Structures are given as C-alpha cells and as structure tokens.
UniProtKB/TrEMBL annotation:
Belongs to the LysR transcriptional regulatory family. It comes from Plantactinospora alkalitolerans. This is LysR family transcriptional regulator. Coiled coil: none annotated. Residues 2-59 form the HTH lysR-type domain. The keyword rRNA-binding does not apply. Keywords: DNA-binding, Transcription, Transcription regulation. PROSITE patterns: HTH_LYSR. PANTHER family: LYSR SUBSTRATE-BINDING (PTHR30346:SF29), TRANSCRIPTIONAL DUAL REGULATOR HCAR-RELATED (PTHR30346). It comes from the Bacteria. SUPFAM superfamilies: Periplasmic binding protein-like II, Winged helix' DNA-binding domain. The keyword Transcription regulation applies.
Length: 315
C-alpha cells in the first residue's frame, strides 16, 4: 500500500511542474524528491512524469495517479477534521439508556446540562430491556447505561449478599466498565394523611397490615427477605405499577404504600411523603455502565462528569 508522504510528493511535483519546485514547497532537496518519484514509479511499474524543457509533466498514467492522490489526501484531511471534532465534543452522538426512576429527574437533567455544554453532540435516550442494559453497552448499541447492582445480580435478594463497600468483586462485568455514582436509600412513600406520615422515621413493623405497591425490576420493593423480616411476614402486594407517576397516584389515593429510591424524590407529589425506615433497608447502588476507558468516547467521559456532579448534589 502506498504511503501518504509519497502521495504528497507526487501531487507537489504535478502542481509545481518540476522536482525543484516541489522540493522547495516541501522543504526537501531536489535529489530527495527525485528519489521519491523514482521509488513510486518502480513500485507501480509505470512512468509517472516525462521531462519537458522547463521541468516535468504527468504522463497519462501519472495524471490519473495525481487525481486519485489528491482525492485520497482530501479524504484523509476530512477524516482528521471529523475525528478532531469528536475529540473536542463539537459533533458526534451519545446514546443513553436507563430505568424508570433514573428517568424521573437524573437523566433528563443530565441531558439538559450536557446539551448546554456540548450543543454539537446529538443525544438520544434509547428504550432497552432492563435485563439487556449491560449487554447493550458491551455490544456497542448503547454508549452509556445507568444500572443498579440489582441489574448486575439479576435479583435484589442476591445483591444484598454482595461484598460490602463496592458491592462488586470486580470493576467490570462482561467487559463493561462500572462507574459507581451513588448509594440510594429506600424510603417508604405514604399519603400525607396516613397515620404515620408525621413521623420522622417509620417502623416497618407498623406497616405490617398495609397493602403494598410493587413495580418492575429494578424499581421494585427490593430485597424481599429483609423487608419481610421487618414486617413480620411477606408484604401483601395489591397493586403493580411500573410508572412512577402512577405509583405516586396510588399512594396519594391511600390505596397502598411503596418504597421509593432517592432518585425519584425530586419528582415527589405534594400529597405524598417519604420517610426513612426502621430498620433501614439495603441500599441500591447506582452505576454508569460504559466501555473501558481505552475505548470510551470523549462524549461518554464528559457525561460521566455531569452524572457524577448531579449524583453528589441530589437530596
């Protein structure tokens, strides 16, 4: 394969009509340019220039070679420019995926802030099966996904037995980097008129007779074993709702109670209150799942910074 320097010399000779003119333009000696063209001609098995009284001119084969070389060099310059714009966050695309409670405030606010900082980057939020969030990042269909340790273990009850501190024995899962953002406390959501709503902390044993509202993974009641132990029996689930607006509406109507992660607190209705529980329930760890740093696009790194800042400032 021909190298780009040889193509630049070829074009320079054609443009200046002489080896000496090309040498001056390229800051080379005339013999160096002559050797470069001779090497090209040997490589291609064709004469590229013929001598004329005041220099050289391309042969028919040389004229074709010069035209293609110009096109190739122009494409390479375009490649460099386009890739530089990605590195400088002037263009490109960032594909996100998350789960419902993350989409109540954290993700929309992160998109808004990122868009203000980097308006040239196109952002999208993709609908992805919850069980496929990590594999979507691994397969390159998603650039950054918000997941919890419940996603990673596939079962909230299994997550409660994870190692303390990091919750994960390794920094990657299936080749995907996991960047911890926050530990979320699960609090009980009650209607403002509930008999326990004025308490600063609610004993779960006092909710043993309540009807509970369950949701889809990972926005569910979490590890059932510690909840059931604190209640004195398995929670009586009367309603199932994946939508956070719907969950809060059911709570506000007084037909049931539920557990609410920290992520959803900023969209709390005025007729619903959240209270810490006694005993405290296992926390849910929030991660950003991305490609490993060596393969991570600059836009992903920038979004990680936005998410980390928001996670620190959340209630």
């Amino acid at each position: 394969m021909l190298d780009t320097w040889s193509l630049q010399v070829l074009v320079a000779v054609a443009e200046h009509g002489s080896f000496s003119g090309a040498a001056t333009a390229l800051s080379l000696t005339q013999p160096a340019v002559s050797r470069q063209i001779a090497g090209l001609e040997r490589r291609l098995g064709l004469r590229l220039f013929s001598r004329v009284p005041r220099g050289v001119r391309p042969t028919p084969a040389g004229a074709v070679a010069v035209e293609l070389a110009r096109d190739t060099l122009a494409r390479l310059r375009t490649l460099e420019t386009r890739l530089a714009s990605f590195a400088e966050l002037e263009s490109g695309e960032l594909r996100l995926a998350a789960f419902p409670s993350a989409n109540t405030f954290l993700v929309p606010e992160a998109i808004r802030r990122f868009g203000d900082l980097h308006p040239g980057v196109t952002l999208s939020l993709r609908q992805t099966e919850q069980a496929a969030l990590v594999t979507s990042v691994r397969d390159g269909r998603i650039d950054l996904a918000l997941v919890t340790d419940w996603h990673l273990y596939g079962d909230p009850d299994a997550a409660k037995n994870a190692p303390t501190g990091t919750h994960l024995p390794r920094a990657t899962v299936d080749g995907v980097e996991l960047v911890p953002l926050a530990d979320e406390e699960l609090q009980v959501a009650l209607p403002t008129r509930h008999r326990l709503a004025r308490r600063r902390r609610v004993r779960l044993a006092d909710l043993s007779g309540e009807t509970w509202i369950e949701g889809g993974h990972p926005d569910c009641l979490g590890p059932i074993a510690p909840l059931a132990e604190a209640l004195g029996g398995a929670p009586r689930i009367g309603f199932w709702c994946d939508d956070w607006n719907g969950k809060q509406a059911l709570v506000a109507a007084g037909v049931g109670v539920t557990l609410m992660p920290t992520l959803a607190h900023l969209t709390l209705r005025r007729d619903v209150v959240v209270r810490p529980t006694s005993p405290a329930l296992p926390a849910r760890r929030l991660y950003a799942a991305t490609a490993a740093p060596a393969f991570r696009a600059p836009a992903v790194t920038a979004m990680l910074g936005v998410l980390a800042d928001l996670a620190l400032r959340r209630p």
